[in-house]
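Quick one, T. Sequence first:
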Amino acid sequence: MKEAYLYMEMEEGKVACGVCPRHCMIPENFVGFCRMYVNLKGTLYSLNYGKISSYTMDPIEKKPLYHFAPGTDVFSVGTWGCNFHCKGCQNSAIACIDRAEESVEMTPEELVEAALEENAKGIAFTYNEPTVSFEYTLDTFKLAHEKGLYTVYVTNGFQSSSALRMISPYLDVYRVDIKAFKEDSFKFQTGMSQYAAVLKNAIQAKHNYGMHVEVVTNLIPKVNDTDEELSGLAEWIARELGTDTPWHVTRFFPRNKMLAHESTPFATIKRAYDIGKKAGLEYVYAGNIDERFASDTVCPGCGATVIERIGYRVRRFGIEDGKCRACGHDLNIRSGLKNTDHSKSFVAP
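Structure tokens:
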């Protein structure tokens, strides 16, 4: 076990966890809501430090990330647990659990070395929520930066402001799920009513900490797919994160406690795409569909296809230094560590 980096000692042996906005008040010998932190004699410990549920090499496009280091492979790592327990969770076997299962154990040093041996260009914590492995992700990312590897959070965006600030020097990419843009649809999915914290963190990640931000919204029929809600979210992204922020709208498939729910119709994805474009978003992408709809990156300046994608692989580039090779339009495509002078440099593989 690893002592937690963010907690406060309270009265009667309780501790207040500082990792996410829940700020769980945990009595002795109890765990918090995510089940990944335990109070032992007034000290908070992480229960899943170095415990890996799965790891593999992935195309960065699979996260999905279309505007960061396109065409590169990233060492993708999952741990255990989540601070949401979504009804339709796609990875409930590792996220919605009561304890960290025994699987592969790697120290941060071993994980970084494994990524280098695989010739990965970066490390992504994904598959479950990385925030509940905060100490492990932070220690790993510090070493990853030292070795020139970029770093990625595939996250639900539910960190405390202290956690986001602490990890910010070592986190290059913040790929955030914005699950809803209304309190009732957010609460239906997650059981919580603090979606404003997710929006605030996305803004801070981009504007306060210089992370590359891409947004994903999984569209669930009759839950978060009304024109009003999608328009509100698309307009918010354009206004608060910038019109050059990629928005990925993806199909929902029945999982976990929503097995009887219908899958997202293709027409809903197309409608969301049109709503995003109407709101002024330059890059709207469609996910979890077989058709090659809205998967290529098209230059907003001249209309040239600058990245052509087949599945998760790219096969044509028209990019130079993060800009359109044809007209020079800045495409908001980054490839390097955010604290270097080469964050927009890109050499096609």
